[in-house]
Prior knowledge:
Layout (H helix, E strand, L loop, with lengths): L30 H26 L6 H16 L16 E9 L5 E7 L7 H12 L6 H19 L3 E9 L4 H5 L10 E10 L3
Antiparallel strand pairs: 1-2, 1-3, 3-4
Helix pairs in contact: 1-2
Amino acid sequence: MARKPKEAAAPARSEAAEVTAPASPPKLKPPLNRFVRWAINLCVLLHFAAVLAAASSVGPTSELIAEVWKPFRPYLQFLYLNQGYNFYAPQPAPSTLVDYEVERSDGSIAAKGSILDMTMTPRLLYHRHLLLTEHLVFVGPEAQQHWYRSYARHLCHKFGGSKVSLTRRVHYPATMEMIRAGMGLNEPMSFEETFVGEFPCGD
């Protein structure tokens, strides 16, 4: 019986003979993507610069800061980011409160309180009421009367009275002299009261 010829052994591959494929060149980022990234970074920087300029422009401040703030003003006004910084520092503005008294038709008092109530919860509702009274400073006398009537209508609906009396109370921040004299933040002399009027329910 004839024997099959042995298959020739495959020649061993020499490591030196192996040819490594050249590494592919690094992919360059498209110029458009690079431009978009730089544009986004620039917008973020300008946004924070605008907020910083708004917070720094609250008086007393330097003329330089005031000039830096001016170009950002339209942007800040459009996004409503130019408000509220003078509530805190360096010289907080006076706060505006509205006291109310709801009277029934028989002369009894249905409700008595203040807008703004410090015990109000949740805190977001407190801030909503804070803005309701604080914005009275920025509108004229005629617009203020419309706002007072809207407060009265709401109080009539809520407490079921026959008329509502409103008193505007302005609270001025305590001065350094008052604090040094041992006075508190809610001293009666730091409040200024103005009787707004009586508003009949159903008007």
